[in-house]
Amino acid sequence: QVQLVESGGGLVQAGGSLRLSCAASGRTFSSYIMGWFRQAPGKEREFVAAISWSGGNTWYADSVRGRFTISRDSAKNTVYLQMNSLKPEDTAVYYCAASSQTMNLALVGTYDYWGQGTQVTVSS
């Protein structure tokens, strides 16, 4: 089992920045690919970003590439999502997830464990 706890969400104006954190506990953190997803009201959960075990490989949704940065600190069992140049359309609940698979990382079903989510609201 892996337990994931997100933090760092909040209310920010358009153009601002936030950094989300996801603290992991349980089974070996470094064995999992870590991802961030988001879900806006009335919409399906969508992929945001993912990072490999080593942190050497990252993947991003087109909508956030160049604005968001995913990173991980294995010593702290924590993964981060730095979000810059935020837009109102980034408003959503953001979820951290862990996957033991190496393919189809943009799919919700690929991930084995999920956090409870943290709300991000971007005002215009």
Report strand %: over 45%
- Unreliably modeled segments: none
Q: Helix/strand/pairing class, anyone? A: mainly beta
Shape: globular
The profile of the biggest β sheet is:
7 strands, mixed
In whole angstroms, the N-to-C terminal distance is 40 Å
Number of helices: 0
Approximately how much helix is present in the residues?
A: under 10%
**How many beta-strand elements?**
11
Q: Name the helix and strand elements from N-terminus to C-terminus, one letter apiece.
A: EEEEEEEEEEE
Overall radius of gyration: 13 Å
What is the average per-residue confidence, as pLDDT, rounded to a whole number?
95
What can you see in these coordinates?
The chain has 124 residues and is mainly beta. The protein has strands at 2-7, 10-13, 18-26, 33-39, 46-51, 58-60, 68-73, 78-83, 92-99, 113-114, 118-123. Strands 2, 4, 5, 6, 9, 10 and 11 form a seven-stranded mixed β-sheet that branches. Strands 1-3-8-7 form a four-stranded antiparallel β-sheet, with no helix packed on it. A hairpin with a 4-residue loop joins strand 7 and strand 8 (78-83). It is globular, with a radius of gyration of 13 Å. The model has no long low-confidence stretch (mean pLDDT 95).
In short:
0% of the residues lie in helices and 51% in strands.
Q: Any chance you could write out the topology, listing elements then pairs?
A:
Layout: E1 2-7, E2 10-13, E3 18-26, E4 33-39, E5 46-51, E6 58-60, E7 68-73, E8 78-83, E9 92-99, E10 113-114, E11 118-123
Parallel strand pairs: 2-11
Antiparallel strand pairs: 1-3, 3-8, 4-5, 4-9, 5-6, 7-8, 9-10, 9-11
